[in-house]
Amino acid sequence: MSRKATLGLLLAPGLALLAFGFAYPFAVTLFAPPAAEHPDVLGKLGAMLTDSYVLGVFARTVRVAVTVTLVCLVLGFPTAYLIARAPKSRQGLLLALAVFPLLLSTVVRTFAWLVILGRNGLISDAVLATGLTDRPPELLYTEFALVAGLTQLFMPLMILTSYSSLSQIDPGLEDAARGLGASPGRAFRRIVLPLALPGVLVGATLVFAGAVTAFTTPLLLGGSRNRTLATLLYDYANVKLDWGGASAVALIMTVLVLVVGWASGRISAKVATS
Amino acid sequence: MIRRRPVLSLLSALAMVFLLGPILLVVAIGFSSGDTVEFPPPGFSLRWFDQALSNASFQQGLLTSLLVAAAATLFALVLGIPVALAVQRRTFRGHKAVETLFLSPAIVPELVLGFALFQQLMVTMRITALGALLIGHTVLLLPYAVRVTGASLALSDPALEEAARGLGAGPLRAFFAITLPVMTPGIVSAAVLSFLTSFNNVPLSLLLKGPGISTLPVEMLNYVQFSYDPTVAAVSTLLLAATVGAALLTERLVGFNKVFSR
Q1: Separation between Cα atoms, residue A46 and residue B144, nearest integer Å
Q2: What is the overall mean pLDDT for chain B?
Q3: Which of A88, A111, A173, B157 has a CA positioned 20 to 30 A from the CA of residue A180?
Q4: Is B192 inside any structural domain?
Q5: What does pTM read for this prediction?
């Protein structure tokens, strides 16, 4: 059998599945969904881009995703750094503890926030117990709830990617900077941060994309008052049964994720060559 | 040398509380004896585990989830391993592009993929919910299969296979005697990751459901939306125990860090 034929045999089944179960449905749904009336996705898209409600949902989705990315960075990066500098024998266990929540269902992890933030939840009980007020704060179905739930969901991704670039950095470099008179903070900023940047960027991109496309958490913690693009898409597709509208939201979401991924790739490439 | 880093330590302690606290909270509530969700629980009981295990829609959901996750993992590996072999062991034009193509289902939003498959496969082509679920989950897992098994191939030395061929082994014999054993840790890791990814998926499973076909996370999601009692906490505790068990077993077989460094 020729090399070409073997190559074809190796790739053909996978390609067939991708074509049938991914590329074809994706393209048709995004640009020409079946509908009773004329499916005018681009027309819908144009109308949405001037609709203040949809624009509000878009802005909220981006705002929440950016906040989640920043919080994950501020909490996750130091965690990854300390794990990478822990004794080798303990690193595996620490990393496993930080990352295993990823293996749990989003429903399980979001349920916890209903308990913490809900009307009779932990925080409102604590506030009532102080006796300062008899009206507990509204926490559930707010953007705050979205940020808390999504941060818990995606922080492991930030820890994992930061760890994998931090663990490549020789601790001797930092010691050298310290030996030459740099303060610990300065050594951290001038040596560790620049070297860890590529991993951090990958992590930030994954967290951002995850936060933009997450569905379960905004459904349970955001409710109908704080829709994101994902819950809006579900609403169009399954409640309003407006498939043209759903396709338009899907286009917005897909383009947003792809543009951010592309931009972060460009920045990484720039950092790597400079 | 131990250095004191108060700010970093504080931030990472906060991160760990944030990550693990909510999960421990759910476990505590699962063992509650109270009638509603409350913390701290008024007492210890297993009543909500009884409730969870005797819930018919959870039982049915669990069966569907296990079936779909096992089948989709198997399909994704059967389709993905040859792709990993082609991408890692052969140089051909566009070989980077082929790899990117196979990783692309991981980039697009899952909800959009679910919506597309619902429209095109279930509504337009009238494929059953189970069929659409299997196709959708296999597509979802294909990137993991290609990347994780590919990583184990990239770490191994192709000269081993060439040596086997040079010593007279046919291509199939070289594959089964050399390449497959080299790939085994990657295959085990990919299988565990794929199984859990499929088992936990909500967006695809929610959109691709039909009469009698609905996965456990989707049933849990429905339950949480309409009733607020510790049943879901009990199910969550069981899932947590099963996941930790699977993770420890994988650690024994191939090592934790290999599973996570995909």
Answers
A1: 36
A2: 88
A3: A88
A4: yes
A5: 0.90
